[in-house]
């Protein structure tokens, strides 16, 4: 009763009640109307266009043998941003510099994760471990910082510069012996380069050669090759859905992948144990420092594993999974780029001659080209840049959209997989003149500008960009430079066949078989 008598327009309580009730009713109403208009706007926004599809398989029939090339053809015909349905999975295909810039810069944070890849039942490590496929968050940020500031940092790589030099000399020695044989013997330069990259990364990461187990590096090379090949085949199986699963079951590919990963795990377990024992021995010796004189990647990771106050507690599974990603991300990519560089140089004798002239002028012929020379060898750098443009080692990369966003006026829904076709982007005539021509001179001018507009992204861009770029750029120019400095390269006849191989990796279809001819013997006077 007292309440009713208090409700009087001249009373302040009355106005409080009125405005309070109005606020309570109006705010949800406004929110509701806003959500309706937002939903309507979202509905109005269209998904990116699609090429003609077929029932069930969607756009699988558009996927050619060389995947990045067939996707480039799709973009040329239907546009730089496309929705594709590949069997039971969907993705958005991005194929020019402008779209890449929106994904990797304008909406960078929104595209900082990668979608889950492959079935968890084929992996022995849980999805949250590793590096390359880990979702953006605290754990990934920790590993990223650790990689750039310690594991793959320039000072750490310089500490292992002798390892890179030693492996390079090993390569030159092997090629020289091939060249010096009386009967002309061809050499498979591709597999020599793969051995070099694999050994260099193995020694920097876990000092395998130093511990006297030379075969470990070879085993890792075989495992990485198998894992890469099977993972690609199985992901295709996943895209095909139930049909893929049946095929895959008969082929037993999942089992094989699991087997290869188990071998890797066993080998890594032993290597971790050896590192831990080495650490314990140093402590038992009573030396002032328990740490090895030069810490490799495993030493540093174990240090964090043993650190009770590390911001993120790494498990041994995390360490093994991280190492697997480093091998998968670093070995084939770097060796494939050097193969392409040598293939292009052999097929372009004028470029090779110009490069050799530059090296002769700057370094001379009495010593091997060194890492510190590279800054004074612009044409060598241009050859490497042009190789990575024409033959990106990671021609297609995956990102995932965290929240709904708009690109080129099209709606990209949360959780959409986005496939960036680096191959198409770096051969786009909008960004490059005569894009399919090997022409290193283009990098002597306006490199900065090209870099800025996202037409040149061999190592990706933004926070998810390649953390191994310093290692790759330390190895590639010095190896290619030495191969040009010390050898002439002969082939059977005509030109090398530089056809791009089938699959998603855009590697060379044919082995890089050639005849090295010694110009100067590197073992007489190498510096
Ligand atoms: C020519 C050599 C190489 C090329 C062209 C290359 C290219 C790339 C590209 C395009 C990406 C994806 C970037 C993005 O999403 O924006 C990537 C990621 C990655 N690369 Fe490399 N890479 C090379 C060498 C290496 C090396 C030597 C290592 C390590 C030893 C390495 C380790 C990784 C890792 C771990 C990732 C995943 C990073 C993440 O997701 O946060 N790569 N690389």
From TrEMBL:
<keyword id="KW-0560">Oxidoreductase</keyword>
<keyword id="KW-0349">Heme</keyword>
<dbReference type="GO" id="GO:0016020">
    <property type="term" value="C:membrane"/>
</dbReference>
<keyword id="KW-1133">Transmembrane helix</keyword>
<keyword id="KW-0472">Membrane</keyword>
<dbReference type="GO" id="GO:0005506">
    <property type="term" value="F:iron ion binding"/>
</dbReference>
<dbReference type="GO" id="GO:0016709">
    <property type="term" value="F:oxidoreductase activity, acting on paired donors, with incorporation or reduction of molecular oxygen, NAD(P)H as one donor, and incorporation of one atom of oxygen"/>
</dbReference>
<protein>
    <recommendedName>
        <fullName>Cytochrome P450</fullName>
    </recommendedName>
</protein>
<keyword id="KW-0503">Monooxygenase</keyword>
<keyword id="KW-0812">Transmembrane</keyword>
<dbReference type="InterPro" id="IPR051103">
    <property type="entry name" value="Plant_metabolite_P450s"/>
</dbReference>
<dbReference type="InterPro" id="IPR036396">
    <property type="entry name" value="Cyt_P450_sf"/>
</dbReference>
<dbReference type="GO" id="GO:0020037">
    <property type="term" value="F:heme binding"/>
</dbReference>
<dbReference type="InterPro" id="IPR001128">
    <property type="entry name" value="Cyt_P450"/>
</dbReference>
<keyword id="KW-0479">Metal-binding</keyword>
<feature type="transmembrane region" description="Helical">
    <location>
        <begin position="12"/>
        <end position="36"/>
    </location>
</feature>
<dbReference type="Pfam" id="PF00067">
    <property type="entry name" value="p450"/>
</dbReference>
<dbReference type="InterPro" id="IPR002401">
    <property type="entry name" value="Cyt_P450_E_grp-I"/>
</dbReference>
<keyword id="KW-0408">Iron</keyword>
<dbReference type="InterPro" id="IPR017972">
    <property type="entry name" value="Cyt_P450_CS"/>
</dbReference>
<feature type="binding site" description="axial binding residue">
    <location>
        <position position="466"/>
    </location>
    <ligand>
        <name>heme</name>
    </ligand>
</feature>
<comment type="similarity">
    <text>Belongs to the cytochrome P450 family.</text>
</comment>
